[in-house]
Amino acid sequence: MDHPGCSIIAKVVPNSTSTSRMDYSSSGLELGMFYKGDINGKIPSQKHFLDERPDIQCHASTNILDPAGRGHAKSGKSNDTLTFVSTLNIPLSVGYLELRSSNPFIHPRIFLNYYEKPEDLYLMMSSLKLSREMLKQPPLSTVWGVESDVDKEMSDEDWEKYIRKKSFSSPHPCGTVKMAPESQGGCVNHRLQVYGTKNLRVVDASIFPTIPAGNINAPTAMVAWKASRLIEEDYKNKS
Ligand SMILES: Cc1cc2nc3c(=O)[nH]c(=O)nc-3n(C[C@H](O)[C@H](O)[C@H](O)COP(=O)(O)OP(=O)(O)OC[C@H]3O[C@@H](n4cnc5c(N)ncnc54)[C@H](O)[C@@H]3O)c2cc1C
């Protein structure tokens, strides 16, 4: 599993003054655009986020975030680029691995399977359409012009082509050795022990049974914390 992302890029329109360019990192922009309450720049708190399980994560950056095209996190020339990124927080599509050899040093084939489920494609399409709409309205449109590949009439088929061509990893791959009953394809049990072995645990993002609805560094740290308790318990029970 992974959180696929896809972006829309805008460039400073000719004749915009340099002072109107976005010279700051994305946080200021996100605050200004998405937080509608406080004009004094007060940081939003949890109560402002009513949906505790949002299905899309959007962020804006003055870097070019287009790994499927022009590479990851390249700074635009003199901050002349704005990227809106949409990420699927709760993708339904699940990928798979194929071993190419019994030799553990040969890399497996990885099939990410993005947008296998139409619901994922629909969500991404809706989010990109909304991003484009925001970029094409003032005040953003007075400074930023959407790049030509999406600055035109687009059918849903066009959007699908764009999304399939431009999508990239968050990168949050996980769940390749999931914790689940063996009968359901699980590789480790609820104590993170690998089925069919003794004293072998897996402690990383690969044991997630489903992908968390958000970035996965903190959940990985929580798995590590829990595993340390499990190992300690087993050690004490043995002695
Ligand atoms: C560019 C990038 C940006 C990210 N940004 C964010 C973010 O902003 N927020 C967030 O929450 N998450 C982010 N992530 C995701 C997050 O960092 C990872 O999902 C998380 O680190 C996964 O932890 P892990 O322990 O499963 O794997 P890893 O952190 O990849 O750890 C695997 C470890 O195993 C070691 N290893 C590999 N092979 C062997 C071997 N054969 N023998 C011994 N050791 C081996 C590696 O050296 C590595 O130390 C980002 C990831 C990337 C790549």
UniProtKB/TrEMBL annotation:
What top-level branch of life does the organism fall under? Eukaryota
**What Pfam families has UniProt attached to this entry?**
GMC_oxred_C
Which parts of the sequence belong to the Glucose-methanol-choline oxidoreductase C-terminal domain? 91-224
SUPFAM superfamilies, alphabetically? FAD-linked reductases, C-terminal domain, FAD/NAD(P)-binding domain
Q: Which family does it belong to?
A: Belongs to the GMC oxidoreductase family.
The name this protein goes by in its record: Glucose-methanol-choline oxidoreductase C-terminal domain-containing protein
PANTHER family given in the database record: CHOLINE DEHYDROGENASE, MITOCHONDRIAL, GLUCOSE-METHANOL-CHOLINE GMC OXIDOREDUCTASE
Record organism: Rhizophagus clarus
Q: Name one GO molecular function term.
A: oxidoreductase activity, acting on CH-OH group of donors
